[in-house]
Amino acid sequence: MTTLGTTGPAVSRIGLGLMGMSDLYGPADEKESIATIHAAAEAGVTLLDTGDFYGMGHNELLLREALRTIDRDRVVISVKFGGLRDPDGGWHGQDNRPAAVKNFVAYSLRRLGTDHIDVYRPARLDPAVPIEDTMGALAELVEAGHIRHIGLSEMGASTLRRASAVHPVVDLQIEYSLLSRGIEAEILPAARELGMGITAYGVLSRGLLSGHWTPERSLPAGDFRGFSPRFQGPNLSQNLALVEALREVAEARGVTVAQVAIAWVASRGADIVPLVGARTRERLAESLGALELELSTADLAAIEKAVPSGAASGARYAEPLMAHLDSEH
């Protein structure tokens, strides 16, 4: 176990991200998704991450169903809010106005079937709303008991400092993996300075670092990786070459590529909690095996040689999406 930042709740060393069970990675089996959440809870995973816009509410309803047989007090529910969608699944920006914050949380509480959310966070910065205004609304929700803690997502160092001046922030959720190390320059030091933990998503770079990806793999309709630069043309070939180099390190330790990639993220500090996006019990079991892997100094050096910082080919999002990330500015 560890804690989210200096003021947050105690959570497991690995969390389960639920997004892919409802959205963006093609069809998922609902029964298997619920069984995977149950298996995670039985294995001691306490941090469950969702978003109100994942499947336009479906993900929260899925979690509600899973929680029917899980002790609510044993899990920490993290919810992102503010992403605007349409009936066709399109995206229309972020709404972090104070009135919208309170509206979103009311609907999430009802869908989840709970009287509080443990960590509540805007999914992105809303450029039209000062972060201080959003934080003020969130602080009121904490005072009222509707949420227990405030988190942030994909925000830059200066925004983290402005937000923390209003109310303590327990963690920053942001992409961090062997292929996405941009936070190491400014964002991670700022988070540590401010007492924030990191919940790292994309630790397998959306499957690239799973060790199961092949150049011939086709993506189902609606899978957003089809628009990701890292999965296209020469970029994909170069990134998979890095994975093969990492596979040599994994095989030398008798573990899988995914386990090495997850263990590497966890090794960066007790204040960093990897979120794994397993959609099946099989993938979950593989991911949890990373907890048993202690990387030696020699292992870390071999990993660094196989996948040096900055070696990824292609940006982590398509350019229009990158432009809207405060963390990239």
UniProtKB/TrEMBL annotation:
Gene Ontology molecular function: oxidoreductase activity
Record Pfam families: Aldo_ket_red
Keyword annotations of the record: Oxidoreductase
Keyword Oxidoreductase: yes
Domain NADP-dependent oxidoreductase: residue ranges: 13-306
GO cellular component, one term: cytoplasm
Record's keyword annotation contains Oxidoreductase: yes
Protein origin, superkingdom: Bacteria
InterPro entries the UniProt entry points to: Aldo-Keto_reductase (IPR050791), NAD(P)_OxRdtase_dom_sf (IPR036812), NADP_OxRdtase_dom (IPR023210)
Name the UniProt record assigns to this protein: Aryl-alcohol dehydrogenase-like predicted oxidoreductase
Organism: Actinophytocola algeriensis
Lineage: Bacteria, Bacillati, Actinomycetota, Actinomycetes, Pseudonocardiales
